[in-house]
Amino acid sequence: MAEAVTSDEVLAALERVLNSDAFLSAPQSRNFLAFVVTETLAGRGDRLSERTVGRGAMDRPDDFDGRFDASVRVRATRVRKALEAYNATTHDPVRIHLPAGTYTPFFSAAPSPHRPALEAGVVVTSATGDSQGFSEALSQEMTRQLEAFPGLSVIGPIATNHPASVADGLDVRFVLHVATVEDTPAVEITVLDMASDDLVWTARENTEADPEAFDVGHWANAIAGRIGDYNGVILSRFAQSGASEEPDWRAMQAYYTMFTSGDRTAVIPAADGLTRLVNGGHRSPTILAALAHALSLRAAYELSEDVEADKATAVSLADEALAEDATSATAHLALATVALFSDQPGSTQEHAQQAASLAGFHPSILGTAGTLMAHAGDWSGGIDALREALRLNPDLPGFSRVLLVMDNLFSGDDALALAEAARIETPTEAWGSYFRALALMGLGYREQALDEMEAALAIDPTVLDDLESVVKSSVQLTTAQRHVLAERLRMFTADV
């Protein structure tokens, strides 16, 4: 999340820039920059144009016409280049930027040269000239929602028709640009990867040419998860491309992989990498909570040499994270996981519900919280949270749908259970094949069901031993729910 910049900080930065060598030797550039910065801070940045800047900063006459006098445009180019050089060579805590195509500057907190590479940098921009204001409103809402996603450092929104030029002056990898589509009642969001100049994602919505008919908040909510989630557009691209060789980033990458892969062995590199990170002095609430969560899962999956020690450390780290950041949903996930596998359903419910309430628009966190709620006995609440998570991001990993498959089996909807099970791809776990087998058998497709169960047995030979080998005892199912699964299992035992 981007650090907010105050007006006083901007004015202090302006003073430092104006006293730099490049600007001390260029009085017109100093006047130009001082004028556009102070006008923007005064709330008049949207009024800055070639004419207003010419008259206000460069002593042009009242009838100044840029069609016949290019001096303002030339000066803007010089100021822009001087700022870019200053930002590139000076570790100023606040940076002033002048994007191409506009006279309105924007301001950002400069990343520390020692800041660990833990976040993907994103700048949110919106096109200028949108008479109905869709682009501006949507870019503001997208910025607000994306700022809540761990793993992203968000700057914006910035009004510009040249989003790539904005990214050039910032420590960002991605540009999210919002613009109305020419000659159509539609607004479009695009995500650009500046490292490769690729368009990596786009979405378009018809505004119906009616501001009241276009729900900006609802649409932003519907797509923010697909962009900012752990397996969303940005972090997936960032991780897959070998974004950073920094050990800090690799540790967090391992954590995100653990969160989304469905492979329980992915917990080990995440826990190991984050442990090294914390032992090296990185004790931010985000890092502490991530390690707590990784250790809680390492204990739950019995992948640790000392399960009880992992539980205790996870609780301690989660408590430390919450002491610094009471809104840490991840810390509550860790505490809920430890409680679940310590046979404390009440505590599990408490922390899972807290995580769900704090998750906001984050599908992976909300889905995990829902799973924990269901496992601890709040089946309907957990299923509701899972469905909401999948609404926010339909591309969540297939294992997120396991409990939805079970819910459909319990309600007697084998067709929908099969549709959900078809989306569970877990090569190292038996869940996908197992639940497809149960649904197929209920629909009468016996041969196909037996084939799927054979595939499940090839991964885990114990899946038909008893009910508890498939549905862990920590899942608080009702007697009726257990009966449904037991009856379906009996249909296989004579044949497999």
Termini separation comes to 53 Å
**Element string (H = helix, E = strand):** HHHHHEEEHEHEEEHHHHHHHHHHHHHHH
Percentage of residues in DSSP E strands: 5-15%
Catalogue the unreliable spans. 112-116
Report the CATH topology name of the largest domain: Serine Threonine Protein Phosphatase 5, Tetratricopeptide repeat
Radius of gyration: 27 Å
Number of domains: 4
Looking at CATH, the homologous superfamily of the largest domain is Tetratricopeptide repeat domain
Can you walk me through this structure?
- The chain has 496 residues and is an alpha/beta fold.
- The chain has four domains: 1-110, no CATH class; 112-244, Rossmann fold; 245-387, Serine Threonine Protein Phosphatase 5, Tetratricopeptide repeat; 397-496, Serine Threonine Protein Phosphatase 5, Tetratricopeptide repeat, CATH 1.25.40.
- It has 22 helices and seven strands.
- The strands form two sheets. It has a five-stranded mixed β-sheet. It has a two-stranded antiparallel ribbon with strand order 1-2.
